[in-house]
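Slide 14.
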Amino acid sequence: MTKPIRPKRLRRCQLSVPGSSEKMIAKAAGLGVDYIFLDLEDAVAPAQKKEARRNIVSALNTLDFGRSVRCVRINDTATRFCYGDIIEVVEGAGSKLDLIMVPKVLDADDVLFVDKLLSQLEKDLELRNRIGLECLIEEVEGMMNIEHIAASTPRLEALIFGMGDYSASQGISVKALAGSSGYPGDIWHYQRQRLAIACKAYGLDPVDGPFADIKNPEAYREECRRAMTLGLVGKWAIHPSQIEIAQEVFSPSKIEVDRARAMKAAFEEATKKGLGAIMFDGKMIDIASLRIVNNIIERANLIGM
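Slide 15: predicted structure.
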């Protein structure tokens, strides 16, 4: 299976910002976070959604977001707001937009609807940039159909596990969102694992969703660590205080990066001599080891380490 070539973006932390708050958007633009998504969905009341669109268009056109990836979370495809979100934001600021995030995706048809509408807008507006897509897996139907969603379109770049709505969909206790469910282990292990596997199979980035208890940074750090261990590349932040933790946990340490570069150099030198495996720091390394090393180096390069 040939995977489409997709842009390489940092997603160690995805900061959620209500599109209805000009003040919060302006503050977020200067935080230096990897990724900002301006929200038109859950963070915005129905009566404020059209005004929030205008706020977002204005912000994208006037604010300097620095190196942060710029994304807009639209309302889901079953709502009356979805098509208007896409058209108004793209017509107003499409050249300044990197991604659109689609919530409550149930199957590949939801993704293809947005994909086709974006394709029409890009052609009509003669946009030079292609706007990417990310999808939230936050319903049991979406989790069941995750492979079809992951394979739906080359425009898709990432899948995100949205444990808030997913809890309601599966009937899980709200205590699980704060990490205090009493479940013996990680209650989200299966969902994170399945999402990570689907993403890796189709060349997408797997991302973990929000952690509600902003006054418990150590629990947030643990949730980041659990997601990172399974291969997820980042986690949401619903408050600026969570940014530093996420970006630290989802970054390799300097020691790891230096060791990875040294290991790769040693292996490449051995390959020139016709060797398929060598000893490095007392351990045997081969081509399988090099794949892990290359993942670390690629991530370090993206971060700028």
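Speaker note: The radius of gyration is 20 Å.
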